[in-house]
Amino acid sequence: MTTQKKANLNVKIDLQLKTEAETIFEDMGLTTTAAVNMFIKRVIDDRELPFKPRVTSTLDKALDDIENNRVETYDTAADWKASLKEYVQS
Questions:
Q1: CA 32 – CA 18 distance, rounded (Å)
Q2: What is the model's pTM?
């Protein structure tokens, strides 16, 4: 029988994040080690992250607002200008 070689992975993360993650993993019946191994195996299998990273740039937030219809619309440029003037004056 062949023994699998193991390696340690040292990662520094915020203590609160670690504690919260461990609680969630425990609720799922997993150890942190098992969860990290699952993550790494999924990355290898799919050759990509198993989730879409969240982007925090102003442009990406604006594009997300547009895609999810969280924008104000105006019938005319005059309506937009009036709304902008009201906003600036308030």
A1: 9
A2: 0.57
